[in-house]
Design brief:
This protein has eight helices and nine strands. By secondary structure, it is of the alpha+beta class.
Length: 285
């Protein structure tokens, strides 16, 4: 008789215990409801109990959850427009407040996505494009996260991190910036060319001036050397003339003959008794 009773008791326990006992994993937190009202919140893992048939359990994850708000266009402090695609991680810090305000993860994603975009527009609107693209970006993201946590602390959630996944200029803005950059580069190119031409002209002018000075100096030295040579030649001629006037006259006549009769087709029409032929007409003694 005892064996059937024990079997019946074990069968009842096997049927009833799963409805009484439940476990909370270390990655979860649970809320116990009874007729739609919150009866208990279990934030720590372990084996828990509830009233069967009357109470139900809702689980919420403890780990950080990913959220990707819709892309939006932001107007920055320098009036630049930026298409911002962001993402964030949040966790449920208080499941009671979370259920009271957001109920489900789907509602949380929609609510937090709108709030993240709103806060991002507000914060980014205080910075210029150069700030968003510089090393200030980390501080900007931290400010967005802190502002968000101040705003959502009553919702039972906490924003762990928020990041800009992609930030692009609108197509028309990109084209305008490209055209402005091209115009600026062309202007700089014209300035460089003009400056280069001016420098080249100055170099050429300086070179021409130096060339003129060098030629003039060389010509002066050549004239001086020629003058000195002529003076020495005249002195030599004078010394030779004074030493032997007859020989000097003969030498000068030979020079005149050489220069006058240098070409084979040279023809001279002179009187036979011309002084030019004085030494030619002389006979050897």
């Amino acid at each position: 008789m005892k064996t059937p009773v024990i079997m019946i008791v074990l069968g009842v326990l096997a049927f009833v215990l799963p409805m009484i006992l439940f476990t909370v994993d270390e990655r979860e937190q649970a809320i116990v409801f009874q007729f739609g009202e919150i009866k208990a919140a279990h934030l720590k893992p372990g084996l828990k109990a509830k009233v069967p048939f009357l109470q139900s359990v809702v689980y919420y994850p403890k780990q950080a959850l990913f959220i990707s708000p819709p892309q939006q266009q932001v107007i920055l402090a320098d009036q630049k427009r930026l298409n911002v695609d962001s993402f964030a991680y949040f966790k449920i810090s208080d499941p009671l407040k979370f259920f009271q305000n957001l109920r489900s993860l789907e509602n949380a994603n929609a609510n937090l996505g709108d709030r993240i975009n709103s806060t991002m527009r507000e914060v980014l609107g205080r910075y210029a494009l150069t700030d968003v693209l510089s090393d200030k970006r980390e501080a900007i993201m931290a400010r967005i996260r802190d502002n968000m946590n101040t705003e959502i602390q009553t919702l039972g959630v906490q924003l762990v991190d928020v990041r800009i996944q992609r930030a692009d200029l609108p197509q028309e803005t990109s084209e305008s910036i490209f055209a402005r950059m091209r115009s600026e580069r062309e202007r700089e190119s014209r300035e460089f060319r003009a400056q280069g031409e001016e420098d080249a002209q100055q170099i050429r002018s300086k070179a021409d001036k130096e060339r003129t000075v060098l030629i003039a100096e060389a010509s002066r030295k050549a004239q001086e050397a020629k003058g000195e040579g002529d003076a020495k030649a005249i002195a030599i001629y004078a010394a030779a003339f004074n030493a032997d006037p007859e020989f000097y006259g003969f030498y000068r006549s030979l020079e005149a003959y050489r220069k006058s009769l240098a070409r084979p087709d040279t023809t001279l029409v002179l009187s036979p008794d011309s002084p030019f032929f004085e030494y030619m007409n002389k006979k050897n003694p």
